[in-house]
Amino acid sequence: MNRLAWPLAALTGTVGFLLALVAMRSDPSSLPLLPPTAKTETTPLVVQTASSDAPATPGVDFAAVAARLNASVVNVDAAARGDSRGRASQSQWRRDLADDATTPHEGTGSGFFIDASGFILTNYHVIDDADRVTVTLSDGRAFRATVIGIDPALDVALLKIGSGERFPTAVLGDSNRLQVGQWVCAIGNPLGYVHSVTVGVVSFLGRKLFDQTLDAYIQTDAAISLGNSGGPLIDAGGRVIGITTAISSQAANIGFAIPIGQVLSVLPQLRERGRVSRGDLGLGVTRITPALGSALGLTVDHGALVHTVTPDSAAERAGLQPYDVIVAADDEPMQTDEAFLRHITLRSPGTIVSLRVVHDAAARTVVVKLGDRPIPAAFRSRLRAQDARPAVAREQGPFGLVVRDLDPGSGLRRSLPSTIQGVVVVEVDAAGPARQARIRPGALVLEINRRPTPTAADFEAALAHVAGGKAVAVLIYDPITEQRYLATIVPDRNE
Length: 495
Hints:
The protein is α+β, with helices and mostly antiparallel strands. The chain has eleven helices and 28 strands. The chain folds into four domains: 1-30; 62-273, Thrombin, subunit H; 279-372, PDZ domain (Pdz3 Domain, Roll); 401-489, PDZ domain (Pdz3 Domain).
């Protein structure tokens, strides 16, 4: 057989086999029988597919939730003339919005209406030390906000805008009923992308980050970024169950929200007093674990174990001492140290509290008058309910800027097209309305509410027709980009 014989024979055999398969496909009876020992079974794959119009998760429609709540979510812009604003920094967690530690400071966050008359909840760190707070609605309208109350310890602030109209509000839910694994979504302005919606689940409940005695954060894997702070965390029923406030700086999709139940507990104080006072005993307590209970020979396995008593505190005056175990407060059983701390901090200073205390095998009742929870030194100077509305600098006017006529012989005038007739901005207040409208020195103001401003006198005449607190359209020319654009300014009132 020559060198081509074997390949040709193989090819002929293959073709014949394929032809036989084709024949058997048309005549099943011609299929060969398998040997009796070669038994086979065919199990079909079961693949479930959803129709294109079916929700991704049965029973959860976050598209409807977002559509219903979007109008109640606002953008919060804060500006300060000071530098770096003394924000507390954390190595592992971030809840600041500082985009630059140099002057002036500008930050942005989120918030949401809780009352139709214009009350808004946000994070304290969003408006911390701000000289100006501006709230922008989903329809683009901007309002100057008043800071009604702040609680740095919980990181909550209550704002108010007033225009005589009724605003859409978010429905508040019950954060105490949350469960790990429950679906949630966040709406906010991450990195300036306004009204972004992200979806995830509750990853953990009661997470401690900053204050071990107060924190009970909701952890979620719904994406939260800088700018989300102060926005709502919402359950599948469209109810706000938290305020997004912190993110992990070491991992993606690890965010935290303040339970709305904690916020509601201090809301009356924020509204009426502008700050929050909490009861305090001057105790350091910890959870009783089986190992700790065994090591200390404790006779109870639940309650708050006292490890520190602050000198000259309410606890010391009441005779409490280390290794006391507080098992009840006001006849309410205390299973853990967290339950006990929550019971105390929800009461006002001066409240009389009855404690059931076990020390070794002896039990006793202790009656104590609560003191005032200490305020961290970093927050003491900031605890003031104030209108974040600085006095208007006379020379800068309601826009917070200074303009002058273009010098006909200047290089700027020669570099501009002859069609550009306006006044040049020479100074901008670091926390003024123009700064928040992104107007910078060197820009030219061409018109104010359609009124041309070719000279400084025309600019002042146009300002005379502007009402403080109401949005103004300003036509700007940027010599760097050689483009015109319309800026919206909410001018200060002369108050």
